[in-house]
Amino acid sequence: MEPALYLIPVTLGDTPHSQVLPDYNTGIIRNIKFFIVEDLRSARRFLKKVDRDINIDELTFFAMGKHASSEAFVSYLRPLEQGMPVGVISEAGCPAVADPGADVVAIAQRKGLRVIPLVGPSSMILAVMASGFNGQSFAFNGYLPIDPAERAKRIKMLEQRVYSEHQTQLFIETPYRNAKMFEEVLRACRPQTRLCVAAGITCKEEYIKTRTVQEWKKHPLPDLSKVPAIFLIYK
Hints:
alpha/beta, 5-stranded mixed β-sheet, 10 helices, 10 strands
């Protein structure tokens, strides 16, 4: 197998991996002995789901964590520089997208190392696909400010970009604060602005609905307190 930094997508929840990941990925995974991972426990669990015959004890894991330094990332890539393939695994979805894996990839690119992204589910792309919004121009804004006043200000700013730049705006929140985010968007945005809520994508609890702000106010809001969700706004 070609020595490279393989970016390995994982499922977005408890969805069977065969439902969202190609068999090709499994073949790649079986030939990798070094993995750079966001979370050790979830990475081990994912690998055993992909192939229960994988011997976890024969593998080497490097944890990215939240405070890993660039020096640590450089050391994680040494097996690749020595001719051995290395995999990158995030907690959910595609590595290096809204994810610390991007720092590892940046170092690999600077070093001239081969980087190969594998096919898998991206909640952001799937949400844009299902929203009915502009897929030619969109922006992922990550988490918005926690302070209510700052959050309302940011939502209004993003809505302005929708109307001035014709750009779909995406943002997320921690599941237990989804309800507050939902309510804040309905308070801050214009009645005609469309809001899509895409939650639990690819999972059994999947919920994807697009309505205008005015229409949302006429319906009971879904309980998203335990479900990862993406909020999208467009005109």
